[in-house]
Sequence to fold (161 residues):
Amino acid sequence: MTLTDALHTLIRPTLAELGEPYASPEAECLLLAIGVQESGFLGRVQTHGPARGFWQFEIEAVRDFVWHGEEALQLAVSHSGVMLETSVLYTNLAYPQADPAACILARDLLWRGSLSPLPALEDVEEGWFQYLHAWRPGASKIPAHRRWLRSHALALTTMRG
Fold:
């Protein structure tokens, strides 16, 4: 999936359906950057790993969403046609029909995992901080930060058309 497609056919429509307070250009940009960072929007199943969906959720993150997620976002996942049961939701994240559910899970993770409002579109370092805090990536932080600079730049370029 191209970044333009990810923005215009997945992220933007999903957030628009959620409405306020979840939808914003800042949320679109950060979700796009994180998707680039995690999967490049190239695959829904992690190579040599257990994560699923473009935002690369492991089963523990799905379980946390099912147990503690924002109620409005849980309802949105249910309305997207994916059962709100940990193993079913986790398994379905590997398939295109669950892409909106994956986007909702990613928005929930930012919603519950953020210590502050979403960063301004150009604030790459605050975006990095919020990504680290919410996703807790396990790889070395220095190469991941270099990749983040590129991921965020691609997201911002895509946002600006």
